[in-house]
Specification:
This protein has about 375 residues and is mainly alpha-helical. The protein has helices at about 35-50, 60-70, 70-85, 90-105, 115-130, 135-155, 185-195, 205-215, 220-225, 260-270, 290-300, 315-325, 330-340, 345-350, 355-365; strands spanning about 5, 15-20, 25-30, 230-235, 240-245, 255. The termini are far apart.
């Protein structure tokens, strides 16, 4: 039998009823009006009885209840779920920002409004108002599709309305094309950092080691920022650096082999680092790397933006690493493993920046053209970039 009562001197009436499973439930009515609370209790009791008798589907009522809640509450629960399963705080904050901006732009406040048309309109608005690139738009789509799948798994929606929503092809909208640094530019950048004054909380030596780690592993800025002394196993054969799953982009632990000469440079530097602390112990390091690189590029006399409109930023160090792996003659499987990509196509099409000389080098090993006199290419000729 449904009932209403007050609890602990609170102004709102509490309602008690028996649900579809016969269990007694209690909740606040949200009102100080006793008659309104009694009507709510009677409705909840009747709904429970109809469900027990098989007259109505209890899941339909469950979906209806979820549909009445503000979507912001579902998002808060989703973020709590991400934290509970071990996602990093940075990943959770990124998801929160992406979902908040997209839902506002899409004008979606309840689950029934979460439709492909609304989401596409929101993406279009973000691309117009915030100049969002297609690659970034795909991140928004991944975030909202993760939310919609979770809503279905949690029994808050009966089906996923966004299951057929597809992403964009970012190759037609590359607004921030990165380039690989030439070997002499790498030397000048690291040397300038090593000799440079402290900048954005890091000493010159620490910045130089940060660049060496990125150039020797292909790690992204957040992955480098996550490293602690125990991440490095310099006595292994080969020596390795490990990024924990929570910080890797694919959410898998990455055990990356490194060259012995890098390991020897790292050894004395790591000896001075306190245990249990990041080796680059600066708050919000990933938000500082852009300014650090530009500071050291300027000191090294390297242009941030080249004649082709390509930039040299921290992520360019990963581009440089992958390009060097290709130039070293790695096969497709080795390249995919070292780049930690789900497909080698991404490594080759997006990250590997080869010069015309690199592309033509295999031609020298091919059999000569029939009837032609073999002639080696002039190795001293300048090579044009192919990107």
């Amino acid at each position: 039998m449904a009932s209403v009562y007050r609890q602990g001197g609170r102004p709102n009436w509490m309602v008690a009823w028996y649900d579809a499973g016969g269990a007694r439930r209690v909740r606040s009515s949200g009102t100080t009006d006793k008659r309104a609370a009694e009507r709510l209790a009677a409705k909840l009791e009747a709904d429970g009885m109809l469900a027990r008798e098989g007259i109505v589907d209890p899941r339909a009522e469950q979906f209806s209840t979820a549909a009445r809640r503000p979507l912001a509450e579902h998002v808060a629960d989703f973020l709590a779920y991400l934290r509970h399963k071990g996602d990093t705080e940075k990943h959770v904050r990124d998801r929160e920002g992406q979902l908040t901006r997209l839902l506002v732009a899409s004008r979606v406040s309840r689950t029934p409004e979460l439709t492909p048309a609304r989401v596409r309109a929101g993406i279009d608005a973000l691309r117009t108002e915030r100049q969002v690139a297609l690659r970034t738009a795909n991140r928004y789509l991944v975030a909202i599709k993760c939310l919609s799948r979770w809503l279905v798994r949690e029994g808050r929606m009966d089906s996923d309305p966004l299951v057929g929503l597809t992403g964009f092809n970012p190759s037609v909208d590359r607004r921030h094309e990165r380039r690989a640094l030439a070997p002499d530019e790498v030397e000048r950048l690291v040397a300038a950092a090593e000799a440079g004054a402290p900048h954005r909380g890091l000493s010159g030596r620490d910045r130089a080691m940060m660049y060496r780690i990125a150039l020797g592993t292909g790690f992204r800025a957040n992955e480098v920022a996550s490293l602690v002394p125990t991440s490095f196993d310099l006595d292994a054969e080969p020596p390795t650096v490990t990024v924990e799953a929570g910080y890797a982009k694919n959410r898998r632990e990455a055990v990356q082999p490194i060259r012995p000469d890098l390991a020897e440079l790292l050894r004395p530097w790591l000896d001075a680092k306190p245990a249990g602390r990041p080796v680059l112990d600066v708050p919000s390091l990933t938000h500082r790397t852009a300014a650090m690189v530009r500071f050291d590029l300027a000191a090294a006399g390297i242009e941030y933006l080249d004649a082709a409109g390509r930039v040299a930023d921290f992520h360019s160090l990963r581009v440089t690493y992958i390009t060097n792996v290709v130039r070293a003659g790695a096969n497709v499987k080795q390249l995919q493993a070292l780049a930690r990509h789900s497909t080698p196509v991404l490594s080759l099409a997006v990250y590997a920046k080869l010069s015309l000389d690199d592309v033509c080098r295999p031609l020298d090993a091919m059999p000569p053209t029939p009837g032609a006199r073999p002639k080696a290419r002039d190795e001293g000729a300048p090579a044009a970039d192919v990107a």
